[in-house]
Amino acid sequence: MSLLSVIVPCYNEEENIADFYHELLKNGSFLEEKRIELEILYIDDGSKDGTVAEVKKLRAEDERVHLLSFSRNFGKEAAIYAGLQKSKGDYVVLMDADLQDPPALLPEMYSYIEQGYDSVATRRVTRKGEPVVRSFFARLFYRLMNHISKTEIVDGARDYRLMTRQVVDAILSMTEYNRFTKGIFGWVGFETKWLEFENVERKKGETKWSFWKLFLYSIDGITAFSTVPLAIASIMGVVFCFVAFLLIAVTIIRKLLFGDPTSGWPSLVCIISLISGVQLFCLGIVGQYLSKTYMEVKRRPVYLVKEDI
Asked: How many CA atoms lie within 13 A of 130 on its CB side?
């Protein structure tokens, strides 16, 4: 018999743990027909509510339920990585505990694996329920990434993805500390089937992703899979050097022809402010890449485990 590992990253999802479990089993009837066993890996990302207690209740009733609890909050990327490392399945699927990833899609996803696809990924065709501003910047991010990176990232892509063991092993071979899973999925390649579905709102509770967290996450993605910002900083440096030499030439000519090189100090202040801002911006770009390098060379563990059941 084959084994399907369901990885469920959790952070303060006490209200959704049992609901997700029952919904998954309700839509998992096809597993018996296909002679596939099931393991459910709840990865607790340092929750401060009763998430761990709820998982332990399920574990007492069903030995297919497993719990890996972190010593603190390390972030969803760390939880996904830990789940992939812990999984033993011939097939592995990533799902959110809030039921925004419909378990009802699993039978169709597995049917494509049977047809020979290496992974089956999902993407939202609508962003119903999301703030308009967040949706706008999300779409802008995907367009930007696909212009400046060689790694394709599909607009609206979810982490909800069913993979073969070969794909999982390929992902685990990428051991970087600064992880951006959406980019990693695209980078490893393999033949992927995309399924589209209407956006589903959370079953209970509130999202843990604020606009600021998503903004920082987008910066992680850009710096992880593109060096174009560094090239932009270099080009801006060359352009402003050229402009500076041009302004020097204009100042000298004005002095020779009109004898008044000092007029126009307000515009001079504006130019200095502009160039200073560009310099700081470019330093910030370099600083982002340097900080990522700094974290990589320290070789800290991606996560620490407090409890493994």
From this structure: 22
